[in-house]
Amino acid sequence: MNQIPTFDYIKETHEKIKPYIRHTPVLSSEFINELAGCHVFFKCENLQKIGAFKARGGINAVLRLSKEEQQMGITTHSSGNHAQAIALAAKAVGTKAYIVMPGNAPDIKKNGVKYLGAEIIECEPTLEARESAVQKIIDEKGATFVHPFNNYDVIAGQATATVELIEQAGLLDVVMAPVGGGGLLSGTALAAHYLQPDAEVIAGEPEGAADAVLSFRSGKIEKAPYIKTIADGLLTNLGDKTLEIIRKYVKDIITVSDDEIVEAMRLIWEQLKIVIEPSAAVPFAALLKHKEHFANKRVGIILTGGNIDLGKLPF
């Protein structure tokens, strides 16, 4: 796919990946609705295969490769959830996955990649180190690189979560997702635009990794002023493809502190009785920070994942 995905392409993608993914539930809570002052519908991608929405985009991108490309193997770089998505996709088509992961990636995510049979190549926790390691694999193995987010097939796959959310929850006034590299937010924005053009798409971003909000305003890819957040899944900069879509179809990006993320995360654990990782709580934290904007609205939130080290809970 070499252009922004159309609605027809997203619908086709949804049918293509259905045999490989879970149709995750949408949950709500009267307590949360009263607290937030609006009606909130949580799309539980923490219950997706590999414990994260990333399975959707990874599967679609790998299924779209030619048989020859699949046979040569797949490579990517990721701190966790996309790594597991590509490992899962490679296993589904019967090929080898070579996953570059920073040495400080959470053990639960490394273990998930190993369990799916992929080979992990560890590197320093910098984008330069990741890209260098991936290039070496491409040169030596002939593997095909699947970018974690700056890839239209990945974006189309992520869009299917919002297609399902709107089917399950009905008409929404606002759709929310967190933003790291922007693959999910791009897909969310496209699906909402095609299905409900009047709905607002609003993202949440950690204050300790606030690059997307700067890029959103300036129109060029910016770096965060500093990196320090509990939301380890959102530490990546936007790409050119995701920035273009986000600037066109996203209404706003709201930044939140780690304390606000932890409070939102705790509320979801307590009230919905489900496990989510910090990154998944970011859009709900953004809603709680600006309740007045969402008053009495119907709000859909993508809960992105549940891969958290239970020995390092923040509460």
Q: Which structural traits does this protein have?
A:
Rossmann fold, 315 residues, single chain, globular, 6-stranded mixed beta sheet, alpha/beta
Please describe what this structure looks like.
- This protein has 315 residues and is of the alpha/beta class.
- The protein has 2 domains: 7-52 and 151-312, Rossmann fold; 55-145, Rossmann fold.
- Helices cover 48% and strands 15% of the residues.
- It is built from 14 helices and 10 strands.
- The strands form 2 sheets. The protein has a 6-stranded mixed β-sheet with strand order 1-2-10-7-8-9, with helices on both faces. Strands 5-4-3-6 form a 4-stranded parallel β-sheet, sandwiched between helices.
- β3 (74-77), α5 (81-93) and β4 form a beta-alpha-beta unit.
- α3 (54-63) packs across α8.
- The radius of gyration is 18 Å and the shape is globular.
Gist of the model:
The chain has 315 residues and is of the alpha/beta class. It has helices at 7-17, 30-36, 54-63, 67-72, 81-93, 107-115, 127-141, 152-169, 183-195, 212-218, 240-249, 258-272, 278-289, 291-294; strands at 26-27, 39-44, 74-77, 97-102, 119-123, 144-145, 174-178, 200-206, 252-256, 298-303.
Strand order in the sheet with the most strands: 1-2-10-7-8-9
Q: Globular, elongated, flat, extended or rod-shaped: what is the shape?
A: globular
**Order of SSEs:** HEHEHHEHEHEHEHEHEHHEHHHE
Mean pLDDT: 95
Which stretches of 5+ consecutive residues score pLDDT under 50? Answer: none
Give the number of helices: 14
**Number of DSSP E strands:** 10
- Here the CATH topology of the largest domain equals Rossmann fold
How much helicity do the residues have? 40-55%
The proportion of residues in beta strands is 15-25%
